[in-house]
Design goal:
4-stranded mixed β-sheet; alpha+beta; Hypothetical protein af1432; 21 strands; Beta Polymerase, domain 2; 6-stranded mixed β-sheet; 30 helices
């Protein structure tokens, strides 16, 4: 446990007394002493790098002159302490310099250009990134927190050193929280527990993760922390002999096998014990697995040899063995975990790993700098996939709350491990589906997914994955994502890729529809086609865009296709501009195109074949099918198609006639359509089965059925949504239903 965890809080409802400020001479001695203590940890740097760090210290010390911490210490002691934490991770010289200077821009009026000129672009960029993070406030309002969180994660994705320094900064602030006013404890501790600790865990910084959790717990619930800490201390005293006995017996067993090991004792953190007690409603006396040992061995194979020695010495608990060496956690963690029944039936957990695994387990992504000098070491990839995925998601959504929804699942992972058909291991969040797996491989695979097999058996795409599954994705070149996938996918990557594809697809289709509508409207003005987007017509497009407020012609066409702009009004404006440039409308074309039988401006009919995807919606109030008379309404979300006799459409047309356009069915329809029918039947036994059989005979598929709760009366209404090819098939189905003896009436539902 950390020193901060071993100290007992003296809970107080009052703010700490304001310390006396030391003299300038005392402050100089304290600062110099703190920095010399830091320099003792910089032996891994070469002389030139160490001197650069010293120059950064001198610059920061001068910048923070006459600034003080809440404890009464010179302010520079805080950047020095933050840098010391970074030095424990063996971060490079620019990162250490940025840690020393991280508050200089915010508090001392120093600019990024100043730092760039003095220390170089790398250091200036790091300090600038840290300064922006320091300005973020995590408010209780979710949208504000989401925006701040998005900025922080993106800064981390661009340069992970930014978040490492920020985590070091937050760790030291939490260690010295008791010097701050009590009113700040709750907000800062909650923010640390909910935001920074999970990021530390996701990056594999387990030591920092545990310390941040315990320090947050200490300041959120000081009485609970103090009580639990005292209980741990009493338990530690009572079981000192038992722990020593286990250590001696295990050391002897390893010695007998000639296996060199380093044995370290460990305790569960107070916060993890607190959560376990809370979750399982246990008293402290009933909590087991408080004590454990870490076994450090020279080589990976020795981990398994040591495991065999331990299992020979003590009885293992069934189901409590985990092999994170063969299948590493997604943050790079590797270790063998086993829980054994020790002396006096006390459960003791052992973690077995190599020295390198131990460093990676504690330092996570920071292990890259620890091993940077070792040729061929592959620690640099730790967590980089997750960091890059943040940028991928950001490129596909600019909404902060949506971004937060995407990443929060990935930030709190409970992983399952599955295999590709080529036996490659992939870690997925618990609850991830086949579609999540497809997008994890590649976005093109996800977009083209049509089916899947798990362990050589076909499964639905919504099937959740389990550890050990072998997953095979079946694709088609013509397949596209289904909007229904959004209801069950788990990962942020899959969700953002699906939404991005659907959005781009809708934009493209709306643009095509807009081009068609504008062309038809121009023909009614005597212009035979939409002006080309070239230099000759630049003036016309510029004038139109200035009036509509659109940035590009493509954006204008999308707005027309979505119904946000009326094609006839845009066409009239465009014709006016073109006339001024000498283009003469064709009078014959106007006569042919402009007026229909009711003397209303006519734009020509848009042809529908059912393959329009998201650009065209078929209204659920009347459910038109091929062969019905139809009309189209551009209401701002694309083209909505209504049955011509739909009461809702008729009322809407009276209020907003300009948004209605002519639509017609194509000769070749590509799919079936849904229609609503109501069948009034006598409450006879088996009547529903007979009605369903008659619909099947008419080759109409039942999509949904509802029935009124009128068992006590003689008749009831059965409401169906059925799938048919056209209105001829629909009428045949209704005709067949009316012939049934139990059917009183059968009719179509049109609003």
């Amino acid at each position: 446990m950390t020193a901060a965890q071993n100290s007992t809080i003296a809970p107080s409802s009052t703010a700490p007394a304001k310390p006396l400020r030391m003299s300038a001479e005392q402050a100089a001695r304290v600062s110099a002493s703190a920095f010399e203590g830091l320099m003792e940890h910089l032996g891994y740097l070469d002389a030139d790098s160490a001197e650069r760090v010293r120059q950064a210290y001198l610059y920061a010390d001068n910048a923070h002159a006459d600034q003080w911490r809440s404890s009464g210490d010179p302010y520079i002691t805080h950047p020095i302490a933050v840098t010391a934490i970074c030095a424990n991770w063996k971060l490079d010289a620019p990162a250490l310099m940025a840690a020393l200077l991280h508050d200089s821009m915010e508090d001392c009026g120093i600019t990024k250009d100043d730092l760039n000129e003095r220390f170089g672009e790398d250091v200036a960029d790091l300090v600038d990134g840290l300064t922006k993070l320091d300005k973020l406030q995590f408010n209780t309002r979710e949208e504000n927190q989401a925006e701040s969180f998005r900025k922080m994660l993106l800064a981390m994705a661009r340069d992970v050193r930014v978040i490492l320094i920020k985590l070091a900064d937050r760790t030291h602030n939490m260690r010295t929280m008791s010097d701050m006013p009590r009113s700040k404890w709750g907000r800062i501790s909650s923010e640390t527990l909910e935001i920074y600790a999970p990021i530390a865990h996701r990056l594999g910084l387990n030591q920092t993760y545990r310390e941040l959790q315990d320090l947050s717990f200490k300041h959120l619930h000081p009485w609970r922390y103090a009580t639990l800490e005292k209980a741990i201390a009493r338990s530690r005293t009572r079981r000192r002999d038992l722990v020593q006995r286990v250590q001696d017996e295990v050391s002897t067993a390893f010695g007998a096998q000639g296996l060199p090991v380093r044995l370290l004792g460990r305790e569960s953190t107070l916060y993890s014990l607190y959560l376990r007690m809370l979750k399982n409603q246990l008293s402290f006396a009933k909590v087991t697995d408080i004590y454990g040992f870490r076994v450090i061995v020279p080589k990976t194979l020795d981990c398994y040899t040591a495991l065999g020695v331990l299992h020979q010495k003590y009885k293992p608990m069934p189901g409590r063995f985990k092999d994170y060496i063969a299948i590493a956690k997604s943050n790079g963690y590797q270790s063998l975990h086993t829980t054994l029944v020790g002396p006096s039936s006390v459960n003791i957990e052992f973690q077995l790993r190599t020295e390198e695994m131990n460093i990676v387990a504690e330092a996570g992504v920071a292990a890259h700098w620890l091993y940077k000098a070792q040729k061929g070491h592959d620690s640099e990839h730790l967590s980089t996939q997750w960091l890059q995925s943040l940028l991928d998601i950001q490129n596909e959504t600019r909404d902060a709350t949506e971004f937060w929804d995407h990443v929060k699942v990935d930030l709190f992972p409970d992983a399952v491990y599955v295999f590709t058909p080529k036996s490659e291991i992939m870690a997925m969040p618990r609850g991830a589906t086949v579609v999540d797996f497809a997008y994890a491989i590649h976005s093109k695979i996800g977009n083209r997914t049509i089916a899947a097999k798990i362990n050589d058996e076909e499964v639905p795409l919504r099937t959740e994955l389990k550890s050990g599954d072998v997953v095979q994705i079946i694709t088609s070149e013509t397949a596209t994502p289904n909007p229904a996938w959004l209801s069950f996918v788990k990962t942020g990557r899959a969700r953002s890729k699906i939404r991005s594809f659907l959005k781009n697809s809708a934009q493209s289709e709306a643009g095509q529809l807009g081009d068609t509508l504008l062309a038809q409207a121009l023909r009614s003005e005597g212009i035979d086609s939409v002006p080309a987007q070239d230099e000759a017509n630049k003036g016309v497009w510029d004038e139109i865009l200035r009036i509509t407020g659109n940035r590009t012609p493509a954006e204008l066409l999308v707005d027309i296709g979505m119904g946000r702009r009326i094609a006839s009004l845009v066409a009239a404006r465009m014709t006016s501009f073109m006339t001024k440039q000498g283009v003469r409308p064709d009078a014959l074309l106007i006569t042919q195109e402009r007026f229909n039988t009711d003397n209303r401006p006519f734009q020509g009919a848009v042809t529908l074949n059912g393959d329009e995807s998201s650009s065209v919606h078929y209204s659920h109030c009347c459910r038109p099918v091929p062969g019905d008379p139809i009309l189209g309404y551009l209401g701002g979300q694309g083209l909505v198609v209504h049955h011509a006799h739909c009461h809702n459409a008729i009322k809407l047309r009276e209020k907003d006639v300009d948004r209605f356009i002519s639509v017609d069915w194509a000769e070749d329809i590509t799919r079936a359509f849904e229609a609503g029918i109501v069948v009034t039947v006598q409450n006879n036994k088996g009547v529903l089965a007979r009605v369903a059989a008659e619909l099947a005979n008419a080759e109409a598929d039942i999509v949904r059925v509802e029935m009124t709760d009128e068992v006590a009366v003689g008749t009831t209404d059965l409401r169906f949504v059925i799938s048919v090819q056209n209105n001829v098939q629909l009428e045949n189905a209704l005709r067949n239903l009316r012939r049934l003896h139990s059917v009183i009436r059968a009719s179509r539902i049109i609003a």
